Amino acid sequence: MGKKVKKEVEPPPKDVFDPLSIESKKAATVVLMLNSPEEEVLAKACDAIYKFASKGDENKVTLLGLGAVEPLFKLVSHEDPLVRRNATMVFGIMASNNDVRKLLRELDVTNSVIARLAPEEDIVVHEFASLCLAHMAVEYTSKVQIFEQGGLEPLIRLLSSPDPDVKKNSVECIYHLVQDFQSRAAVRELNAIPALLELLKSEYPVVQLLALKTFGVISNDRETRIILRENQGLDHLFKILETKEFNDLHVEALAVVANCLEDVDTMQLIQQTGGLKKLLSFAEMSTIPDIQKNAAKAITKAAYDPENRRILHEEEIEKCLVTLLGTDNDGAKAAASQAISAMCESLASKDAFGIQGIPQLVQLLSSENEEVKEGAAIALANLTTASPSNASAVAEAEGIEPLINVLSAKRDGTIANAATVLTNMATQEPLRFSIQSRGVMNAIVEPLQSTNSLVQSKAALTVAALGCDADARTEVKPGVKLLSLEELNLQELNDHRAIILVNAKLPDVSFSAEDKSQDRYDGRTTSSSSSIRKSSKERASSAVVSPVEEKQESSGRSPSSLSKSSTREKGSRKGKGKKEEEKPKDEEELQTMSKIQQEVILEKVPWLPPFDSILLDYITDASKTILPLTTTKEQVVALAQFVADKMGGPIERDKLHEFSWELHISEIEFELKCNVVPIGKIKKGTFYHRALLFKVIADRIGIGCSLVRGEYGRAWNEVKLVDDSPQGITGLLLPPQVYILDLMYQPGCLMKQGSAEADHYQHI
Question: Which pLDDT does position 597 carry in this prediction?
Fold first, then answer.
């Protein structure tokens, strides 16, 4: 047997490195390892970076500075599952930093991260990929990217994940996404409501809270509320409200209920099941201010519907709201005041609040909180509108002085509504005297100078209501008389800007046609003896009339023709000499009596503003041609073109200086011998003439618009229009947008408020 030969071990290949365990305490070294071709090195490097980044925000910034994000981005889609998982974990935790998110947006990582939500991926990958998306969805740009790249559908699927962290991250991301209306519609179409309702049963409060917040946003859409009701969503919400252990969820649950109560069907369902009584009792008895505030907001939203107001009144909502006015929380007080304002559309509620709530609202006018003060003013304004008894109740509650005091408040809404209350009260003479005696005219001067057009208009109405007494008029500005329209009409021509008169009201039929068309067109009562005698017969029968004039009236002849015929008759009987002697005496007597008669009649015939028949024709034409148009937008555009056509047509922007509207207005003033110009007579009008005419006709035919006064003779109209729904999304109701209307250059052109073209139109 031969000797055994020892088998030689083959040496390892020269180009292979022996296994080496690398340890490093420097982040820069580990970041360099992210470029390794070996999966094991990559996995360990990602794991080390994850632990380092978890320690704080400073470490994330350090990694960003070392350039770790770019190689990590490549590893998120690596073919090795472990490398892919660890890289995704780093992305999930790094995305909480704002600077990291900025770089992630630039790299457009959303598509790669969304791909990690696929069902075949590990649950840990789902957790951190959804966490990364939740962090990124805070910014609008990323929100759009996630939606457009189809991230919503896998996120909704993960709401049913067995892992609570995946649920939490997914619903948080969805909550951020649904702030945009496109995502809200998509959530509804992808049937996410049942999955979200299941999250309300979670044992983890943070998951329940995020689900409720999401419902709080998507339930603003009526279609979503219907689906929520059909899936017994209200039962889930009321179970939360009835569970004391869930008191940290009550505020958000009430916010969802508030949206649901806007629908009459939901309101009726809640009333029938006894839920409404529970809700009101819950609001009254709760000691948590935010719950009381949200309950009042829920009532406010519901009260915008007439049927809902009826149901709320049946449940004695007034008692609940008055109780909330007496809470210690300013937010609850302000919300209760808003709810009272909404309920005031119901006359029964208005009467009930007049008895119970007015004294408390008057007290709130003296609150140090500006929001509370404004809410009280709004409520009182609505309570006193068309309600003399409530106006008297405000005075009885000693509300006049607080109302005058808040005319100098910080918020425009407070001032405008306080002025409205004073206007409503001033319709009653005793209250008007009481308001005047407290120095209201001095207090109203500041609101009249406000830059807010609404405040100005409300203050002007207050002055008009209070200035019907001579003492009040002299108090507005000492030493300067506030002229009436009649006095302005009788002024001599001057070089001041013309006073534009708007009056399409038909004159009193008791005056003769001649009186209306001639004697009163220019606003002055002429001394035409025929019109005076007609007025004497119809409106001043007690005046002294000579037998000669009575005969003239019965014959219908003028004084001159009558005197001639009478002298001819006398001459034929008594001879020519006698006729010549008596003629001067008869005519002198007639003229003397005519002057006396004129003075008597002028004292008895009331002055009327000139009737603008042209304006009435404009309104009639607009009613026939513009009102039948299908959409509001079509009506607005058509009316703009109509107004521009009546006032000189479109004008080229570069040739505006050649449009001699000033000369045209002066010619009208000279023609009428008056500074007051009826708007219908203006055929060449500039910005403020056209804007005023548009507003007048729009109001008469039912088109909503605002008239805004600018500087240097500029004025414009603002209209609110709803844009068409985006393509692919049907039944979506977008919020209305404010547009500035061009009446000068391209009549009918609609410019979005705040756009460069709108600003150019509004300013010189």
Answer: 59
